[in-house]
Design goal:
This protein is mainly α. 72% of the residues lie in helices and 0% in strands. The longest helix is centred in the last third of the chain and has 51 residues.
Length: 439
């Protein structure tokens, strides 16, 4: 099998009857280094822009999703009406799909309460079904043959599902399994490098392209997290707003360059180019690749989940021991009444164990708000977000319902403190509600 750039099929024979097809130039750019650069930039924007709209603009997940969904439909209308690849229009569509795909996963996780494990399985299944239908209809999954409306529909549906799947996979690794975005990024880079190397050794180009396409989503999220986090926690401290602006400008500059130079243009007619996967070769490669991925992912998940479960049980046992020690140290006499006994008893342990760190950060932030120092409170709440996110893998297994309750309260605090136009009353009430939930 002849190797080509990932995304280009290895067999160029024209064995489809294309007489009924509308003659269009390919609607997707050539797969060059510029393609992957902009793709990673778009995935980072999808992460940071959704956070900006949800938190800083205080639209919430539902409001942000509705706004982005409507805007995406408008851009899709113009994208499908075009008869050729237009860099600005194409990449604007990718940016919006990236944001919307991120929001779909976030809504399932944060608003509906679907575990990331379930979301990953759902989107993986949807992706397989989409690929199966696409191939059954067109006999190709190559991005170098997007010159009919039907193929373009399958292409964008696949892109949307890959963004949602990449978000679920990345969040599962970084947050639920507690690996963090830095380690998740390194793992994803290793997977991408392995796939690229396998492609050089005759892995099907279309298969390699879509595997890398999915993996660039958590890679972009890791990059966005590194840039937006404060230096105190190992980031550059640019924040979601500045990171989004910088990457949007970078995308704009690259798109303008490509529009002028046309380095990513595929100017080939359908009657001259029909790219197909080789069924026999591709089938066993897909089967082997899926087996390897399932084995590696399943083994890694089972091991890490076991570690977290053991840590959660250890934390519960430790908290119970501390509570028992406090009860034993509590003075009591035979003349104590029931109310007195109740007053002398140690406070009941939290379902999430020791949450004093979160209580202190929340109280510090509330004190700053009461003192009129909203800018200081906004800075201090960064510590709350970082500590809470890092503790997710440890706390959630202890009590999922309580964790979700506190997580919702934390999100409300972040939206109030990071709003473009802060409201002191709203900040105060959200912090007091969080304290009550923690207590």
């Amino acid at each position: 099998m002849k190797n080509t750039i990932p995304g280009r099929g290895s067999n160029g024979r024209n064995d489809l009857d294309t007489k009924g097809f509308k003659q269009m130039l390919n609607k997707v750019p050539e797969i060059t280094i510029f393609f992957w650069i902009i793709k990673v930039l778009c995935t980072t924007v999808g992460e940071t822009a959704s956070d900006f709209l949800n938190v800083n603009m205080n639209l919430g997940l539902v409001g942000t999703s509705i706004a982005m969904g409507l805007l995406l439909l408008v851009v899709f209308f113009f994208q499908f009406r075009a008869t050729k690849y237009i860099p600005g229009l194409y990449w604007l569509t990718v940016v919006l799909v990236s944001i919307f795909g991120t929001l779909v996963t976030d809504i399932l996780t944060d608003s509906i309460g679907v575990p990331l494990e379930v979301s990953t399985i759902i989107f993986s299944t949807l992706l397989i079904v989409t690929f199966a239908l696409w191939y059954a209809k067109e006999k190709t999954l190559s991005v170098h043959s997007i010159f009919t409306r039907q193929r373009e529909f399958f292409y964008w549906l696949t892109v949307l599902v890959t963004f949602a799947l990449g978000t679920a996979t990345g969040d599962l690794m970084a947050e639920s399994l507690g690996l963090g975005y830095a380690l998740t990024g390194l793992i994803v880079c290793a997977v991408v490098a392995t796939v690229a190397m396998a492609w050089r050794f005759r892995l099907n180009a279309i298969l390699a392209f879509w595997l890398i396409y999915i993996m660039t989503r958590p890679l972009g999220a890791s990059l966005g997290d590194y840039l937006s986090q404060t230096p105190k926690y190992g980031g550059l401290g640019l924040g979601a707003t500045n990171t989004s602006i910088i990457f949007l400008l970078a995308i704009l500059g690259t798109v303008i360059f490509l529009s002028v130079t046309k380095k990513d243009l595929i100017a080939k007619k359908v009657s001259k180019e029909e790219v197909r996967m080789e069924p026999q070769t591709a089938f066993w490669q897909v089967a082997v690749t899926m087996m390897v991925l399932l084995l590696a992912a399943g083994t890694g998940y089972h091991w890490r989940h076991g570690v977290l479960q053991a840590e959660a049980k250890g934390n519960v046992a430790q908290d119970s021991s501390q509570s028992a020690s406090a009860d034993a140290a509590t003075p009591s006499t035979a003349t104590n009444t029931a109310p007195d006994m109740a007053n002398n008893q140690a406070p009941k342990a939290s379902p999430l164990g020791n949450v004093s760190n979160f209580q202190k950060i929340t109280q510090d932030t509330l004190d700053m708000v009461n003192a009129g120092n909203l800018s200081g409170a906004k800075t201090r709440v960064d510590d709350l977000e970082y500590e809470w996110d890092n503790a997710q893998s440890r706390l959630k297994p202890m009590n999922g319902a309580k964790w979700t309750e506190v997580d919702d309260a934390v999100d409300k605090v972040l939206r109030q403190l990071r709003a473009v136009h802060q409201d002191a009353g709203g900040c105060k009430s959200s912090l007091e509600a969080l304290l009550a939930t923690l207590n």
